[in-house]
Amino acid sequence: MSGHSKWHTIKHKKGALDAKRGKIFTSLIKEINVAARSGGGDPTNNARLRKAISDAKGQNMPNDTIDRAIKRGTGELAGEIIEEISYEGYGPGGVAVMVDTVTDNKNRTVGEMRHIFSKNGGNLGEAGCVGWMFEKKGVIILEKGSKSEDEMFELVVGAGAEDLKDEDESWLVTTKPDDFDAVLEAVKEAKLTPISAEIERVPQNRVKLSGKEAQQMLKLYDALEDYDDVQKVAANFEMDDSEYEAAG
């Protein structure tokens, strides 16, 4: 598989392990809050909020919980001020790591980020140290079905996607962030259900890891994703199947 596919293998593995309802709800509420604060409380005119609400409903979050999160974001209800902060650093083997967080306490979060990086063979860097290695893209992963590659290409590229790649058991669709909603809507109208659909930081190049460095990097990745304030983690590494299997 390609490095990009391997990068997503980690995300899917973590998604299965992350069935901790409390953490999922907390993360979604924060995302709704930040989305409403940055783009307004009307999902019709706020694509990020629309996506956050859809994700929350997908986890069976009650409507009143969603409404309260929106109102806290717009200031209609009093509550903690949630800030969106990105951290940059290096993992084992010089891997570039980007961590997107939402927090009500910057001092607590930066301290914890520094601790997690150093404990797992990495170090927290300065703003801008690795951000240039990543590009924001819409990333949609679809299971292969009855449609041929030509049919899939016509569907997604016709809706505005940049590319379609064959990833063995799945299709990988990439878009510009502004075209993500239109492509996702076209996919759903075609009665296709994505395995995942997110705006992500896609690395422009990757570092091949093996042995101790590979295992350390997986531990760092897991530790970052397990921290409550973390929304997304991106890193520019890849490794052979045997390294993933050794990690369990």
Describe the structure.
By secondary structure, the chain is α+β, with helices and mostly antiparallel strands. It has three domains: 3-74, Integrase, N-terminal zinc-binding domain (Arc Repressor Mutant, subunit A), CATH 1.10.10.200; 83-132 and 205-237, Alpha-Beta Plaits (2-Layer Sandwich); 135-203, YebC, transcriptional regulation domain (Alpha-Beta Plaits, 2-Layer Sandwich), CATH 3.30.70.980. The chain has helices at residues 3-17, 21-39, 47-58, 63-74, 106-119, 149-158, 180-189, 211-226, 241-247; strands spanning 83-90, 96-103, 123-124, 134-143, 163-167, 170-175, 194-203, 207-208, 230-235, 237-238. A four-stranded antiparallel β-sheet has the order 3-1-2-9. The chain has a four-stranded antiparallel β-sheet with strand order 5-6-4-7, covered by helices on one side. Strands 8-10 form a two-stranded parallel sheet. Helix 2 runs antiparallel to helix 3, helix 2 (21-39) packs across helix 4 and helix 6 (149-158) packs across helix 7. The longest helix is centred in the first third of the chain and has 19 residues, at 21-39. The radius of gyration is 18 Å and the shape is globular. The relative contact order is 0.16.
